[in-house]
Amino acid sequence: QVQLVESGGGSVQAGGSLRLSCAASGRSFGTYSMGWFRQTPGKEREFVAAITWSGSDTFYADSVKGRFTLSRGDATNTVYLQMNSLKPEDTAVYLCSAGVSGPALDYTNYHRPNTYDYWGQGTQVTVSA
Fold first, then answer.
1. What is the DSSP letter of 103?
2. DSSP 48
3. Is the dihedral of CA 65, 74, 32, 120 positive or negative?
4. What's the confidence (pLDDT) of residue 82?
5. What is the pLDDT of residue 109?
6. Is 89 exposed, middle or buried (0-12, 13-18, 19+ CB in 10 A)?
């Protein structure tokens, strides 16, 4: 069982920045693929960013590319999503996810929610115009 706890959400004005953190339990964190998705009421869960277990590859949605940066700190069992130049359309609940038992993350599966086995409760990000 893997538990994920997100933090760092909040309210900012457009153009501002936030850094989300996701702390994971488990002694095998270094083998987990990690992802961030976001969700707004009435819409499907939307892929934001993902990172392979080794940290050698990262993947981003086109809508956040160049503004968001995902990194992992294996010594602290934490992944960080640095979000810059935030826009009102970034407003959502941001959910952290971990891929533990499935296939390795690659270009065919990084964006699919069912690639990931565990999910956090989410943290709200609100960006005002």
1. P
2. E
3. negative
4. 98
5. 93
6. exposed
